[in-house]
Every structure is written in structure tokens, then in C-alpha cells.
């Protein structure tokens, strides 16, 4: 299920004044007190927020995981994605929150929060590196080295990734195993791993980080980079010192 809408953003000049972008989402059920079929989604679905680029392609700027039958409230900082909104004006957004076969009723309230927190920098250019794919023996073949030109006037450079593991193609090694992702920037290694995956209770520990408690289903098991009913925080690494403009 999805919803699409055109939104009028501030002008390009005004957008240049912001260094922070947050997404605030409330997902509502017909009856928030019940855990039953027909009252919000029964499973942990991937939910995505996209913005359409100048070529008409949808660019994912935020990711969430829906809860088991519970209402959710998410707030996530996606400031690196300001680069995709910097021209301002009318932009087309798409919110996908469940597979098409899911007919559970859900109402969504979605807001974009723009602010200036005096960081001293804001996202101005982006180079797309990789998409996901099946996590099997051929995974690395689709993630070969890429040369990225760094502008001469760059003040700050970040490696940004949104990583969640789903499915069970290789012995559940996506959702319930510690799948590891190693990035090398000019030879310097940065590793994203998921030690909480496969544990019996690690998603309970995420309640203070935005995950909804007291869900139906097996919400308490630790997963590979996500928990049911929680926003997916972007993994951001400062690599300014590792690159040469």
C-alpha cells in the first residue's frame, strides 16, 4: 500500500539555510487498544519514504519497520538527504508502508522538519554507491570499488548507508544473523555489523530508541539492523580526513 503527494517546499534560497532534516511519522490503527487482524498490519513490513528526482526516479530518503498490530510514532534525522531536496519548490513524495496484499487499515500522518542547528555544513552533493540485493555468495559481485570525485571546496564528507537485513536465503543470514558490511575509503576500513541479530531479547533494549513496546508477534527478537516498529537510523561515518578534494 502506498500514498503519493506533491509537496511545496521552501524556495532554493530558503532551503540553503537549513542543515537538518527530520521526518516525523505517526501510523494509526482503527482501534489502538486491540491486537487482532483487521486492525493495523499484522507483520513487520518495510516502510519507505521516497522523493522523485529530476529524472522521475524514486530515491529512498528514509526507512522504517512497521509494528505488529500497534500504532507507531517515529522521528528520525535524515539530514544527509537534504541534498535531494535542496532545489526546493514542488516535489513529489511517495510513502510505501505495506505490501499490496496487506489490506489492514492504517492512517498515516507524515511531516518534514527543516531546521538550522549551526553544524557548519549541510549536504550539497551526493554520489550513489550501491543498492542492496540478496545476501548470498554473489553479494560482493554487485558491490565493486567506485571512484568518487570530491569537490575542491568540500568541507565535510560522509559515508551514509541505510542497512537492514531481511529474508532467509542463506540460513536466515539477513534477519537473524550478524551480517557484516565492510566499507573501505582510500584503504581505511569501516564496518557495520549487527551483533544483536539472533538474540532472544535485544529488540526490547530498543524501546528507548523509538521502538514500540508490547506488540503482537515476536517483536522482542534481535534482528539484523532493525526492530519491528522502529525507525531505521542512517549509519553515518565522517570520512573527511580520508579523502582528498
Would you give an account of this structure?
With 245 residues, the chain is mainly beta. A hairpin with a 5-residue loop joins strand 3 and strand 4. The chain starts with a strand and ends in a 7-residue tail after the last strand. It is built from 1 helix and 12 strands; from the N terminus they run E-H-E-E-E-E-E-E-E-E-E-E-E.
Could you tell me the number of beta strands? 12
Q: Spans with pLDDT under 50 lasting ≥5 residues?
A: none
The amount of beta strand, in percent, is: 25-35%
The arrangement of helices and strands along the chain is EHEEEEEEEEEEE
Question: Major sheet: order of its strands?
Answer: 1-6-3-4-11
Q: What is the average per-residue confidence, as pLDDT, rounded to a whole number?
A: 91
Number of helices: 1
Largest sheet: 5 strands, antiparallel
Helix content: under 10%
Radius of gyration: 19 Å
What is the global morphology? globular
Distance between the termini: 43 Å
Global structural class: mainly beta
Describe the protein's topology.
Blueprint: E1 2-9, H1 12-15, E2 20-28, E3 46-52, E4 58-65, E5 72-77, E6 89-96, E7 107-115, E8 158-161, E9 181-185, E10 188-192, E11 230-231, E12 235-238
Antiparallel strand pairs: 1-6, 2-5, 2-7, 3-4, 3-6, 4-11, 8-12, 9-10
